[in-house]
Amino acid sequence: PPPTSSEGGQAKSGGSAAPGGRLQYDDPKALEKAKKSQVLTRTEGQKKVPWFSHLPQYERESSLSQQLSQRQNNIIHPEVLKLGLKFADWLIVGGNSRTIALLHAFMQVVRDYQHKSEETAIDMARNLDLKPMISYLVACRPLSIGMGNAVRWLKGKISHLRVTQMSVQEAKDFICDEIDTYITEKIVFADRIIAKHTAGKLRDGDVVLVYARSTAVEQALLKAHGDGTKIKVIVVDSRPKLEGKQLLESLVKQGLRCTYVMLNALSYVMPEVTKVLIGASALLSNGSVVSRVGTASVSLMAKQYNVPVMVCCETYKFSEKVMLDCICYNELGDPDELQTKDLTDWRDVRDMKLLNLVYDLTPIDFIALVVTELGHLPPTSVPVVIREYRKEVTL
C-alpha cells in the first residue's frame, strides 16, 4: 500500500496517479515507487477481477502487527495500531462508528505526545506527524470519505496551533476538546436531529423499507415508534455481511413490526412499500449517493414503483467529489466471504474470480429527499451546503 494523504485514504504517486490523486494499483511503476515509503506491507490478492485491478485487494494474513514489531523506530501509536487491526478484521463497521473510533485514537495520540519543557504549541504542531499512522490505517482498510473529511479537519486544527501562543498542555486540551465537540455536533447530535426530521415524515400506516444497517436510519425508525407512529418496517438484507440482521434485532426488541427479506425478494415486497429510507457513506456534489452495495438496486426498484427514497446523511459525509459509477472509486472486500459449499475450491479454478464490492453508487435521479441535521434538502443542494459551510473546514 502507498503513502497516503488525509483525503479519504487517497495516495500521492506523482504522475502515475489517477485523477483525484488515487494510486493505480495496476500500474507496476507507480506501485513500486510507493512501496519505498510504505509503513505496512500486505500480500496483494492473487485473483483480481481485471476491471477492478486498480483498487487494492489483499489476502488474509495471520498477523499484521508482527512486521510492525520488527521495525526499528516504529512511530505508530499503540492505539492506532490496535484500531488498524480492528479495521482490517471488520470488527468496527459503519461510517459513524469508524470515524468516532478514528478520532478517539488520534485524541490519545495527542494526549501522549512527548515534549521537552521548553516546547510550545508551535513546536507541537510542527512535530506531531499523523501521516505514517494514516498510511498504516489505510493499509489495513481504506478510509471512507467521511473519515477523510474528519482527518482533514483535524489536521487543520493542529495547523492552527502554529499561530497561537499556547503551551503544549493547553494545545493538547484544545485539540481534545475540539475532537469531542466534532463527534458530539457532527455525529451524535446530528443523528438525533436527522432522526427527528425523518420521523416527522412518517405517517400512521406507512410501510417503510430499509436496506442493510444505518445508525441514522435506525434512530429515525425508533424515534417514529417512540412518538407513537404506527409503521411497519421491511428490512432488506444481502450477503456477505448480513448487516440487516442486527438492525432487525434492534427494532424487534423495541416492539416494531418487521419483515426480513433478502435482496432477491425486493420486487415481491416493493408494491406494498410507501417509503424507502437508506443511509449513506458519502453524498457527492452531483447528488449521487455512495452507500453499501445493493443500495442502488433498492433505489432503482423504488423508482420503478414510484416510491420516494429518502437518504439520511450527516453533513460531514458531504464531498466535493463527482462520480458517475462505482468502478473508479470503491473498496474490495475479502472474496472468500462469498464462497459457499460449492465454491470452497474456487481458487483452484483457473478462470474463476470472485468480486466482493463494498459500495455502489445511487444516481441523483433515484433520490427524492436528503435528510440532514440542517433539515430536508433536495439532492441538488449538496454543493450549496459545501459552499456555505466551507469556513468550518469540515467538508
Topology diagram in text:
Blueprint lengths: L27 H8 L29 H5 L8 H11 L6 H17 L9 H7 L3 H10 L4 H16 L7 H32 L7 E5 L3 H12 L5 E6 L6 H10 L3 E6 L3 H4 L5 E5 L2 E3 L4 E4 L2 H10 L4 E4 L5 E2 L39 E4 L6 E4 L2 E3 L4 H7 L7
Parallel strand pairs: 1-2, 1-4, 2-3, 4-7, 5-8, 7-10
Antiparallel strand pairs: 5-6, 6-9, 10-11
Task: Provide the β-strand percentage band.
Answer: 5-15%
Question: Which strands sit side by side, in order, in the main sheet?
Answer: 3-2-1-4-7-10-11
Largest sheet: 7 strands, mixed
Taking pLDDT < 50 over at least 5 consecutive residues as the criterion, the unreliable ranges are: 1-21
Keywords:
about 400 residues; alpha/beta; 7-stranded mixed beta sheet; 4-stranded mixed beta sheet; disordered N terminus
Structural description of this entry:
It is a single chain. The protein has 395 residues and is α/β, with parallel strands linked by helices. It is globular, with a radius of gyration of 22 Å. Helix 10 links the parallel strand 2 (232-237) and strand 3. The protein has 13 helices and eleven strands. The strands form two sheets. The chain has a seven-stranded mixed beta sheet. Strands 8-5-6-9 form a four-stranded mixed beta sheet, sandwiched between helices.
Question: Summary?
Answer:
The protein is α/β, with parallel strands linked by helices. It is built from 13 helices and eleven strands.
